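Predict the assembly for these two chains.
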Amino acid sequence: MTFLVPLIPLLPLAGFATTGLFGRRMGDESHRIAVWAVVASWLVAMVVAFGALTHTLGFGEAGAGITLWNWIPATGFHADMGFFVDALTACLLIVVTTIGMLVHFYSIGYMAHDPGRWRFFAYLNLFMFSMLVLVLADNFLLVFAGWELVGLCSYLLIGFWYPRRTAAEAAKKAFLVNRVGDMGFALGIMAIWTQLGTLNMQAVFAAFGNVPHGWQIAIALLIFCGAVGKSAQFPLHVWLPDAMEGPTPVSALIHAATMVNAGVYLVARCNPIFGSAPEVMVVVAAIGIFTAILAASIAFTQTDIKRVLAYSTLSQLGYMFASLGVGAWTAAIFHLMSHGFFKGLLFLGSGSVLHAVDGEQDMRKMGGLARKIPITYATMLIGSVAISGVPPLAGFFSKDEILGGAFKNGFLWVWAIGFVVAGMTAFYMFRLMGMTFWGESRVDPEKEGHIHESPPTMTRPLILLAIPAIFLGLLIGFPPESGLLHGWLKPVFEATIAAGGRTEAAYSFFGIDGVLAIATTALVAIAIVFAWRLFGVNVPALGLRAQPRPDQVRELSARRGLAFLYRGSSNKWWFDDLNNQLFVVWGGKLAAAVFWFDRTIVDGTVNGIGIVTTGAGTGLRRVQTGRVQNYALGIAFGLIAMAIGYLVIAVR
Amino acid sequence: MSNSLDSYLVLSGFLFAIGTFGFLARRNAISMLMSIELMLNAVNLSILAFGAFEAALKTHAAVIALLVIAVAAAEATVGLSIVIAIYRNRKTPLVDEYDSMRE
């Protein structure tokens, strides 16, 4: 059944081509083909994932490759158009196609009144194609092609409402910041080529042990550089929050659940490369956990509902990288999957909130929405509980495994920071819930009247996403460290874990693992209660009721010692200002200097030669008077000069 | 005086200078052709003078002078016919109005 694999990306590509070419003429029906293409792609992907995970339908334990044709048959270099499916790919396929499909459904309702919806659906289909190429590719060059294509789609969709200046600028920012990382990835691919002479992933991984250690480190660092850009890790994290200018389904699909996971996928896929360079793994862990705490601290004070979620995404991605860095490979993919579902849910939920309050994104102008939009509220509450890590929802298992992995693999500092971030996550999520759904309404009076629940096309995907947000952890991650997912991914990471020399201690509820889980859960509970005290709660079913206390928030944030933290957090630790100063102001000056050099010196030389030539021509043109006698005079003077010259020489 | 080479050369120089001046100063094409004849004959005169006073050059000088006369005749023919042809086109003998090749 491996012949099905190329269909997975091809169906959305066909959808993109049809919708892109004829969508404008299809009018209100323009979403039909795009949505059905993705549904068909999902069905095929489910079959393929089933085969790859159970090692049936022609997929072996090590996965199966399909080479379609010889893509670049140059002398001394060749790359195949080929796909490779193993358990890791299957996990990504499940996340990408399922969330992609639900987001397509959701967009039918969300974009119902947008005149450019055919364009939107065409871009979404193109994105699905690109992302699927990225995860299915069997060589680095094809991965890179998908990598750049998702970047392009991200650009197009962030700037979907391009007449809005902020949207156009956010799109540009995302594209430029991503280029920095992509440059590193491209260099990494070139380095692999120079060292091994092939770009096929399986061949590279098999031969990677023979590469000199210096090159191993360089290649791992360069690939990680690409991952940092795409997954928005420090210091390239600045583009993701601004990317929220795009339509909310885009934020959910691209900037929370799929594309930003590409970096995590790439590092996990390249686990033999990173396994050979333990020094780089420490860098991965450090950058990951630093991003996690940095982004969580910024999420504390943001007032834009989508930005809080964006920083939360950064923070969770940081967790995944920390997990990869400490060698807990499976936990990272586990968190990738569970995060994809609950963060997709949260983003779609926030889109539903925006739909209800007529596009208002400022949480200070929300409040008390719980009764008015009950389905959105209930599903978002599930998402928040899941991401906070309350057992037994999905986030608890995956986060617990990451923290446990860090602790047991000897990265105590990663564990300590991650532990704090777990509490912070719970706090800012319930701050978001409190400000949005609980307490008194602060909605503009003229908007107050038309607050309404979203249509079923939007609420149904929320409900469908809430199911994995609750059960995914239990389903594939229980019992911890020996659940279904661990069995699936064992062949992928086994060799690297063994080479790392770390003995896997069995998970024990009554040993260190249980203690860690209880400690994390306790911290999360404290953080949630703290958030309730400050931002209110209202869940009559559980008897929870508290009024928000804005005065206390104000008092707390003005307290000495905390005031600085508060200012830093609300100014995003001045990273945007730093970048502005470094690259826009100083970089702009450098560019202006180079521009001046080009204009005056380089162009000046070239134009100078031209001016001298035309000047000489103009001058000499006067000589051509057309009068015979002028010429004769010239001849006469010439003769006289020659005669004098002869005389001078002869006399001497 | 009349029996020295110098006097012939001085005369030849004068004639050549007059011819040159005429060629440069006159605007009439016919006058210019006449000036050219004058210059040619001035040169011929000096050649023959060298032949008369230098025994070794005697025959050579005569031959060269004859050649110059022949060439001058041919040149005059061709030149005159060109001038007449231009005159028929432009209705003027004045060379400063023959300026169609200017710039």
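The mean pLDDT of chain A is 87. The beta strands of chain A are 64-74, 77-85, 537-539, 544-546.
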